């Protein structure tokens, strides 16, 4: 598998293109967002198709990265082939909507994030498909799911990813308020999160809570900060936020 097409070259589509091209794949872009497609062609050697039909005719795998409400309309009536895999990135749009639009191609749902451009996206996808897994591994970690309900829950981690930026903004803002220059404030904020994530991934035999407990010293600075968060209900509000995002995704799917 060497040829990948992308229909919908918005922000996420551009991130996919950059990551795939950096991985050595031949990337063919739909032409609608002319300025962005031209920039990707110049910087990463992507090619620009004359239209969506050409993307399909010349690609083994096609990413559908249009807005969710537009995905069925965009995909319908195009020359899909039975030997193709179509990977949708549209949140909340189920396979029951995607499959008829791309028949006879094989449809797969996915939830890549913007760090696809760095080839560091943990990407949930459904159903398990070896071709989709091969492509998504070019962008980071490919995480398959056996049923659509589980995938729907996993896809909400795309919202979690976005919410982390708000957390980072709070932390780096606090550091600057206390006199740190912006650059070290940013490096410490992101670097500490990266270090904690690395420990969780490395120690799969240990629950995150145990890793936390191992760090805490009675009467220490970490314990004091956690007490403030717990007393305010701040930690449980993260679950509330994820519940709200999941409910929104299910509502979109019901309409779509």
TrEMBL record:
Matching entries from Pfam families are given as: F420_oxidored, P5CR_dimer
Q: InterPro entries given for it?
A: 6-PGluconate_DH-like_C_sf (IPR008927), NAD(P)-bd_dom_sf (IPR036291), P5C_Rdtase_cat_N (IPR028939), P5CR_dimer (IPR029036), Pyrroline-COOH_reductase (IPR000304)
Q: Which residues bind NADPH?
A: 52
- Taxonomy, superkingdom: Bacteria
Task: List each copy of the Pyrroline-5-carboxylate reductase catalytic N-terminal domain by range.
Answer: 4-92
Q: Which SUPFAM superfamilies match?
A: 6-phosphogluconate dehydrogenase C-terminal domain-like (SSF48179), NAD(P)-binding Rossmann-fold domains (SSF51735)
Which is an annotated GO molecular function term of this record? pyrroline-5-carboxylate reductase activity
Give the signal peptide, or none. none
Q: Where is the Pyrroline-5-carboxylate reductase dimerisation domain?
A: 155-249
Q: Which residues bind NADP(+)?
A: 7-12
Cite the entry's keywords alphabetically: NADP
Q: Which GO terms describe its biological process?
A: L-proline biosynthetic process
Does Ligase count among this protein's keywords? no
Family statement drawn from the similarity comment of this UniProt entry: Belongs to the pyrroline-5-carboxylate reductase family.
Q: What is this protein called?
A: NAD(P)-binding domain-containing protein
The record lists the organism as Nisaea acidiphila
């Amino acid at each position: 598998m060497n040829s990948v097409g992308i229909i919908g070259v918005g922000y996420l589509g551009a991130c996919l293109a950059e990551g795939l091209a950096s991985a050595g794949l031949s990337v063919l872009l739909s032409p609608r967002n002319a300025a962005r497609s031209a920039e990707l062609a110049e910087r990463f050697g992507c090619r620009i198709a004359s239209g969506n039909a050409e993307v399909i005719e010349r690609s083994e795998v096609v990413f559908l990265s249009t807005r969710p409400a537009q995905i069925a309309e965009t995909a319908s009536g195009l020359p899909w082939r039975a030997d193709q895999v179509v990977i949708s990135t549209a949140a909340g749009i189920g396979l029951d909507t995607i499959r008829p639009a791309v028949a006879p191609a094989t449809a797969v749902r996915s939830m890549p994030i913007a760090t696809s451009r760095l080839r560091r996206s943990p990407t949930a996808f459904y159903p398990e498909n070896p071709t989709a897994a091969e492509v998504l591994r070019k962008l980071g970690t490919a995480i398959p799911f056996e049923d659509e309900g589980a995938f729907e829950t996993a896809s909400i981690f795309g919202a979690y990813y976005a919410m982390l930026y708000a957390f980072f903004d709070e932390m780096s803002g606090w550091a600057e308020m206390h006199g740190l220059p912006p650059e070290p404030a940013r490096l410490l904020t992101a670097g500490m999160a990266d270090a904690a994530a690395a420990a969780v991934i490395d120690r799969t035999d240990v629950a995150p809570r145990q890793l936390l407990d191992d760090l805490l010293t009675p009467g220490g600075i970490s314990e004091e900060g956690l007490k403030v968060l717990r007393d305010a209900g701040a930690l449980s509000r993260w679950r509330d936020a994820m519940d709200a995002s999941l409910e929104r995704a299910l509502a979109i799917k019901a309409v779509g």
